[in-house]
Structures are given as structure tokens and as C-alpha cells.
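Objective 1b: paired records.
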Amino acid sequence: MTSASRWSSPWWLHATAIPDFRSEQGALARQNELTKPPGSLGMLEEVAIKFAAWQGQVKPQIQLPQCVVFAADHGVVAQGVSAFPQAVTVEMLKNFIAGGAAISVLARFHQMGLTVVNCGTAIPCEYLQGVIHRPVAAGTEDFSLQAAMTNEQAQQALDIGAEIIDQLEVGSDLFIAGEMGIGNTSAATCLAAMILDLPATALVGPGTGVTGENLHHKQQVLAASMRRAKEFVESPLQALEQVGGFELGAIAGAYIRAAQRGIPILVDGFIASTAALLAVQLNEGARDWMLFGHQSAEPGHARVLEALDAEPLLQLNMRLGEGSGAATALTIVKQALALHNEMATFAEASVSGQHLVSEAE
């Protein structure tokens, strides 16, 4: 499917939904009436108020969360930037659908829908049942030598994300994007560096476990890739074409489409946040629907979060991907909503609000 085949072009520029200001103000008023000093629950209060605005109700609930893992391979792996071979990507797809991956466990824990999408693996895997197959190509090209993808392929990747969001179960009220792809930390590093106009060496990290001389080699490869690509990049979409990945484009497209449909987004780690950065560059309205689950151990993640003016809920030194950090943070989100919805107000508990305010002071 190309961008022109289903959407008026370019669909990703269409307006996003507008959070409900009245519900936001109603939730804030409720927070100030709960039996606690105002602001004493910190970010938990902010989370509840955000969800009230997103859902258009003073007492929001998460009843049908969805996680979609987008998978693809990366040609730059040929340059020795990863500790694992590309065959692992397909092996992990099998693990996702068999229920053995970290995100599979967390999805069961949260009773969350889990969808796996093949956006373009190097090893054909269309025989795998339980996977949605939308391969753009058999992985990207080696972006140290040439553009990772064509303009048409970049748009196709965005379209995949939008299509998947439109296929989510009616009533889905939270979206988490996960990713899988050997080499995708390298792609995310270069994509973020290109958008932020930073050297790749300022963001590059171990990814799947590259250390020592191998990490130095990875830094050199990515720096050279940036030098090659920079002259061809004048827009966010061109950055995706030059150094991105099919799953990165699909996640960015999914984020934009979720924002257009008014579905709250809980963003995962470095790779997912880089896709969020791309999404916001393409459509700034997408940012209004994002909550950031955690700050990963990847050094580039802090720079991306700063650029997005994002304060993550957790910092646990995670760097797995798959949506696992966001799914872990979902527990905090659920607790925030439970506190907001179920705590007694001063009037209900016959407690003096002024007494609690005085204690806080």
C-alpha cells in the first residue's frame, strides 16, 4: 500500500484530535478535593489529569490497552554494528507469538492486546501465523553506503503504522508501540542525530551489547554514515529515507494516526522515542497525546526526551525495547488512575482540607 492508494496525500499532516479542556479542569478540581495535600502525589496527579483530558471524562479508566510490536531488519548490520545476527529478528517474532518474550509476559500481566507486525525482515517469514505481514522490503539498504530506503518505501512504512491503528479493536484506549530489529539502535541513533543536528557519537550506545573496540567501530560506522547522508536531508521524511528503518517509520505513522484518532500513547524507550521525535517533526499535534514511560540506559535517550520536553515516569536502566519499558510504566499509570478515581474527597471523608494543607506546609 502506498500513501496515495488509501489516504489523501500526505495524510500525516492532517489535524490530530484535541484533548478535552473541560475534563482536564474537572480532573484538576477533583485532585484538589481528594484527601491529601494538593500536589502531594506528584506526577501521578499529572498522569490522571492527562488521561481525563484524553478520554473526555473526569474519571478516566484504561480498559482496552494495546501493544503493537513492529519488526524489520537493517542493512547496516553488514558493517558489524550489532552483537547479534539478523536471524535473531525472525527468531524473536516466533518468541513473541509463542508468548515467551518479555513483552508477551507483560501483555498477559496487563491483559493487554499484543499484535506483531513484520515490516520487512531480511529472512522471509510470511509462513509465520499470528503475525501481520506487511514487508516493505527484505530489510533496509546499508545506510553507510546509500539511502536506507526510497521515498516511496518511507511513505509505505508510515502507512503501515496508520493501517494498524485503524485495525485496532473498537474501544482501544491506550497504545504502546514496541519494536524488534537487529541494528535498529544504530538506525535510531542516526535518525535522532540527523533530526537534532547532533553528531552520532553523542548518542551512540551499546544497543544489544556492543562494547570496547566493537563499540568504537560502531561509532565510526555511524559517524561515516551521517557524513554520507547529511547532504541529502532537508526534511524529517528525508532523514527517515537516508538512515531510518521500516519499523521506525511504521511506529511514527502509528503515533500520528493514534493522535488523529484520540488514542493516548505510552512511549517506550530510545527507539520508540526516536520514532516519536520523527512523528512530532511530521505533525507536532502528535505530541499532545504522548506520555513517556521510562528513560532507558541508551545514552541518546536523554537527548531525545529533552528535545520532546518529556519527563519519563521511570528510570530503571532498561534497554530491551519491545515496548517493555512502557508496559512496565503502565502499572504506574493504572495506579495513578485508581488513586484519582477511588480516593475519597474531603466532603466524602468528613476531613478538613485546611488541616491537610497545613500539614503539607
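Objective 1b, second protein:
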Amino acid sequence: MNLNDAVIGQTYTIKEICTDDEDLELFLFRLGCYSGEPITVVSRLKSGCVVSIKDGRYNIDNGIAESILI
């Protein structure tokens, strides 16, 4: 299941970041988005979603959300 399938307001644990793009993986790691970390979808937008990771909120597009497996 990827982040696009998540229910708004429910906290999930990140299982894996599934991408071949090393820059994207490093970017997500710097946000605190890596295996074992909790993540919550705060709201959905037309082109993506707002997520809560650690103590921050980030707007990510659907392509990035698809690479985050929960």
C-alpha cells in the first residue's frame, strides 16, 4: 500500500521508499521520511497531499506519495 491509499488523519509506519532516484530518496531522508518512521496524511490536494512527518508538515505530489510504501 502506498501513501496515495492512506486514510486522512490515520498514522502509518513507513515500510519502504520505493524509487530508483537517489536524489529523491536523499530528499525524503532529510525530511525524516524513511523506514520505521510514522507518517500521517493531513489532507489531500488535487495534485498531492499534505503529510506530517516528525514535527513538520510537507506538501508532496502524487508521484512522490506513490513511492512511499506504508
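The mean pLDDT is 95. The beta strands are 11-13, 16-17, 38-45, 48-53, 56-61, 68-69.
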